Amino acid sequence: MDRAIDTWKLVSLSPLPLWALVLLGVATVGGVVLAVLSVRKELSARRRWTLWMLRVFAGVTAMFFLLEPGLRKLQVARIKSRVAVLVDRSASMGFPVESKGQTRSSQAADVLDALAPEMEALRDRYAFEIYGFDPELSPVSTGTLRTQPARGGRTDLLAALRAAATGQGGSTARKLSGVLVLSDGADNAELATGLSPRTKAAIEELGVPISTFAMGKSGLKDLAIETVKVDEFAFVRNSITAEVEVRGRGFKGQSTKVVLRREGTTVATRDIRFESDDDVQTVTFTFTPDQTGRFVYTLAVPVFPEEAVADNNTRSFALKVIRDRVRVLLVAGRPSWDERFLRGLLRQDPNVELISFYILRNQADVTGATNDERELSLIPFPMREIFLEKLDTFDVVIFQNFGYSEPGLSISSYENGLANYVKNGGALLLIGGDRSFTEAPGRFGMLADALPVEAALPADVQPFKARLTPEGQRHPVTALGGASQSSESAWASLPAIPGMNLTRARSGATVLLEHPFATVDGRAAPLLALWDYGRGRTLTLTTDGSWYWAFPAHAGGAPSRYYERFWSNALRWLVRDPDLTTLQVVADPPSVEPGKPVAVVITARLPDYQPAADAQVKVDLISADDGRVVGTKSGTTNSDGVVRIEFPPPAPGPYRLVGRASKGEKSLGEGQDAVAVRAVGTELADAHVGTELLQELARASGGKAFAQSVPPLSEVPLLEPPLVEVGRAKDQPIWDRWYWLVAMVCIIGLEWALRRRFGYI
Amino acid sequence: MLLTRRHLLTAASTLAVSRAFAFGDASLFVPAIAQHGGKWDARINALRRLSWELQRRTSIEVSLEVRPLPLASPKLFDHPFIYFGGEGDFPPLRGEEIENLRRYLTYGGFVFADANDGSDAAGFDAAFRREIARVLPQNPLAPVSLAHVVYKSFFLLDASPGRLLKKPQLEACSLGKRGAVLYSQNDVLGALSRDEGGGYEFEVMPGGEAQREIATRLMVNAVMYAMCLDYKDDAVHLPAIMKRRR
Q1: Rounded distance, CA B184 to CA B159, Å?
Q2: Of B63, B106, B186, B212, which residue is most buried, by most CB within 10 angstroms?
Q3: A35-72: per-residue pLDDT in tens?
């Protein structure tokens, strides 16, 4: 507090309440007005004005005595107020002021050192409180600014100003007289796009001048992937667009390339050219994911040697690719009841888009038409279009009793493509019949390698009931049971089917259903077999009698949905429906800020799809760029079959999480997911200095904006510290002097005399 | 024994289907015929002829053996296509026949009904309408438009005559989008029926042999529809069909 000083002020010492004083005042004024009106017809202006002035003076003196004026003598002193000095501690303050120069934080420390002597000189009046904000306020020193890097994840100037105004982190008892802000102005919160009317009102409401000191210099050379706009998920085989904004500072007239990669593989490249020294170019990448799952895509521009920041030249994002509808191609060698019921099932499934081609006529058939074009609805089978051009657009290809029955329908030239289609992730389902396997005149060549069975013997046409193998009892494809019935009894309840092709299971194939009696090479002939082939899957059902599970099964009167369930399971297995896997691996979250841990949630199920409690889980974190295992962690699932595992923060880049689970000796399968570790957070994405924002802040609050030079503190607007009373006030009346009374009497007396003289009394 | 043309054709057909027979009946189109209380078997040989036409003209593999089936028999479900024909009235179906036939149609079966007597509001027509209304009370017979897929399932047709041309349109009971019952009052199979000597049994009126060919094609289409459903309504076929229809 300053030394006390004497001062005085004029006060009213009347004991009357305010309302009474007002009433008497009004009455006095009324009396003056009435008197003035009563002489308004006086012909002599001099007389009129004399009477008016006397009445007015009388009124004034009456009010003087009513109010009882006095002098109040008191002692006051100035209380020290506070000035908040806010230093930005967000990560962008780690950028250099100039290329290869000191950091912005260090520059802020220099400014504080330069201001320190003046702050000291003003310490009687102001308490300078120095805080860092990131965005929470905490006391900071110049030593800290120089030695400890700024790490704050974002810059929120408005929040910091509000906190300073309410005295967070410091002394709330003192009034705030001003704020000094030392920052690069790279706000990425409410003020990211400048001051809006709302935020401007908020600044004005603080009621203190805010002066800003811009840290850093414009003109840094920097190339940055500024924003990436892309949906979080895409549909497989549907194109998706990513819109990328690339900012170039100091690259006027220069061209560069923007590259989009998916886990190390280049997807597309675009050329851009900057037209000015601070230019933003937008490029669009349209690409078509060909697999379901989650993948990390990375956008990158080259790093130039003179760039201020290299970390913002790449940006990764995770994209989940899902299936909209399962697109099924069904090729039937001829019309049959098996084809009819499968078609009926697929057509009524809203999750299936069915494209079908049936061979309705053989070469030798005589239709009786004289003009095929006009009389038949048949179209040529578009083999080239289906098996060459459009094959990759299908999720599942079904050959139903389709083989080498017709010379004109040979697919030998397309077999390699079909095998590659499966190897690259497609799915093939082969259904038997009288034109398949050993019954077909010809044999598959290269495509045969993709099948889990090979033709063996002529068909067995005796009716039989399909028998579940031990693998079939656990496999999701043959899971027909529900709460009240096991799969085994469900299969046993289905009617016999009238014969099957006899084949031999290949090594590595899984047989789920078999003939109970017929054997091939001493082993039960497989009816339903499947396997993974490359990245794809194939399934064979060596009969054209599965329709017996659909239609004749209803003869007894008790409807079941086993036929529908079986084919639904088969399709979902073929397209790798996640619900049919016993192990789910999900990155949580799929995109991680730099320096944050990578977490993954594993959900394990037993083969009967119940939660696998106490299962042992092992997860590898693998760099998607070079396949290197970066870390391995283990865990045990809880009673829900779930476990969450965290890896320490890895370096930025795309990663795959590959998880395996087992319960005792039994493997529960493997799953994987992708996670993107960003190279830069929002703070480090852009190296610009927000000089305009700092100027706006200063203007809106009545402060000043400074850049590059350190002004004298006297130029910085600050509110005066408040005055407070000290000691006891002493009142001295001035109304009770005799001369005031004499004056009033004389005035009233003179007026009365003149009124009488002029004839008004 | 006089070797008639029929015998020769039967033998030839048997040879043609022997490969398919090796895989069992279940793979074949079997001409099944519904047995009811009236004259149900007026067109047995025409059904056999239909199988022969299917074998000759299309890739469908057939059995030439006509299979009569009682309507209450669970064996109905082994044959997703049933011919229901008759001459004259027939007694009301029993409860279990109604129930069985209803379940048969609901779960995917198909019935082609044919008034062999060409009746209208009498005889077979009256009886069939009465009984089918009991089987599918919620799905009455309704005219089939020329845009229906049955008119393009194999041959492109714009008429549905039989031995007669009493009614220009077929009628159908539809379950959802599927025509479960197709009915003709024109005795379609009558146009295919042959006598012992191998000649056609009936004159076809009024269109003669041209009409007979169309009737044959209609039956081929009906079987193709039963086996392929709305295949020819798939988008991939529409442009070609529209072009040919012009």
Answers
A1: 12
A2: B186
A3: 888 888 888 888 888 888 888 888 888 888 888 888 88
Q: Contact A556/B19, CB-based, under 8 Å?
A: no
Best probe of the B interface among A362, A366, A377, by most B CBs < 10 A, is: A377
Q: Which of B15, B7, B101 is nearest to B45 (CA)?
A: B7
With 70 as the cut, is the pLDDT of residue B5 above it? no
Q: How many CB atoms lie within 10 A of CB B189?
A: 29
Contact B57 A365 (CB under 8 A): yes
Query: What structural domains and CATH numbers belong to chain B?
Result: 25-245 (3.40.50.12140)
pLDDT band at B15 (very low <50, low <70, confident <90, very high): very low
Whether the ω angle into residue B137 lies within 30 degrees of 0, i.e. cis, is no
Question: Between vectors from CA A280 to CA A275 and to CA A281, what angle results, nearest 5°?
Answer: 80
DSSP notation for chain B: ----HHHHHHHHHHHHTHHHHTT-GGGSB--EEEE-SSB--TTHHHHHHHHHHHHHHSS--B----EEEETT-GGGGG-SEEEEEEBS--PPPPHHHHHHHHHHHHTT-EEEEEETT--SSSHHHHHHHHHHHHH-TTS--EEPPTTSGGGTSSB--S----SS-S-SS-EEEEETTEEEEEEESS-TGGGT-B-TTSSBSS--TTTHHHHHHHHHHHHHHHHHHHHHTTGGGSTTTHHHHHHHH-
Judge: B26–A497 Cβ closer than 8 Å, yes or no: yes
This complex has an ipTM of: 0.91
Distance from C-alpha of A337 to C-alpha of B27, rounded to nearest angstrom: 7
Q: A214, exposed or middle or buried, with CB in 10 Å at 0-12, 13-18, 19+?
A: buried
A457 contacts A508 by C-beta, under 8 angstroms: no
